[in-house]
Each structure stands twice: as C-alpha cells, then as structure tokens.
Structure prediction request, 212 residues.
Amino acid sequence: MRELTIAIAKGRLQGATLKRLRHVGICAPDEALASRRLSVRDEGGRYRFIFVKPVDVPVYVEHGIADCGVVGLDVLLESEADLLQPLDLGIGLCRVVVATDKPELLSDDFGVLRVATKYPRIAAEYFGSRGIPVEIIELAGSVELAPILGLSDCIVDLVETGRTLEENGLREIEVVADCTARLVVNRASFQLKAGAISRLIKMLGESAEGGA
Ligand code: PRP
Prediction:
C-alpha cells in the first residue's frame, strides 16, 4: 500500500485525533509523539503524520503535501481551500458564536458594529446575511479582550467549554455554526491513492459509528 500523509491539527483537536487513529490501528510511536518532531511515521510504516497549525491543515492538503488531514469545521468554513470532506469525525465538538459584554448594542439599530475575530470570512458572511453593517477587526488570538478593552463591540469566536467567555465577562448571544472535526482529502490523492484513502475513510467512519 502507498504511504499516506495525514496533516494533524495541533492544539485542541490533536489528542482526540490521535486517539481516533489509534483506535483504528494507526499508531505513532509514543517516543515520537513525546518529541518535538513535526513529521512522524506510524508503527506500521503506512502513514506519516505531520503536525501543523489548524489553519495550515487545508493549505497542506490542498497543495497535496498531505493526502488528507483532520481539522475543525470552523477552520474549513474560514478557508477557501478546495478539498473533499468525506467524513465528520464527531470529535472536538465546539461552536462559533457571537459574544459581547454589551448585548444591548446588538439589539439596537446601532450603525456599524465593530466585530473582532480570528474568523473574518465567517463573521462577514454571518452579519452580511443579516444585513447588519460591520467593521471586521482581525486578530490572531485572545479575541475576548477586544470588547472589554473597547477595541470592538462584540466578537465572533470559538467556544468549547464557555470558560474563556465567562471568565472575561462576555455573554454568548448567538450561535453562528456548530463545529466538529472533519477528515479532509486532497482531490488528486483521492484518485491516485484511492485504495488507501477509501480504507482510511471506512475505518474512521466505522469507529465513529461505534462511538470511539
Ligand atoms: C479558543 C477560542 C477561545 C477559547 C475557547 O482559543 O478562541 O479563546 O479557545 O475555549 P473555551 O470555551 O473552552 O474556554 P485558543 O485556545 O485556540 O487560543 P487563542 O485565543 O490563542 O486563539
């Protein structure tokens, strides 16, 4: 079988992704996982994992450097990459929301709303579809600070436990999208490595049905 390269999103999804892969018999050596190596082969020699930032998973897969990848729907909604998305893995449940410390601003006819976010495309689409004029302020992280410090009126950001919102005095106003991790596949790899990729989709799909 030809080797498959799988791009794994580092961070919140990494542990659950590796657990799901291990459940279907695709295991990276513990010693490699404990190291800082960013490219690691599985014990069976059939798969190579590359560990990249979540936003870079679609980039590596679209360019065919990775045949497939595991990444959150939030990242895919923001990305313009042309990828196949054959499987919802059902792990990493979270949601993209609108949150603020001044809910009254969102209900009034307010004028132009200032929205801080790591998701400029999702935010623009969301408010655009509601006819609400916005100024998007793009940030790379710690978005919750923006309304508190007066940089924005609200945020569009990811919520998992809700703890970051709560501990920074913000309230969730609306859910923009519910998100889970998806398997994404490069279009050419899907043809050229059809056997290996179909097998991977089948194994991961069956393990998802089994609730692993
Ligand atoms: C994400 C998100 C929130 C936080 C939500 O940030 O942007 O800040 O996690 O998680 P919670 O609901 O469980 O508290 P991330 O950890 O990716 O860091 P960042 O702010 O640097 O982007």
Residues 96 and 158 are 4 Å apart (CA to CA). The pocket of PRP is lined by residues 141-144, 157-164 (CB under 6 Å).
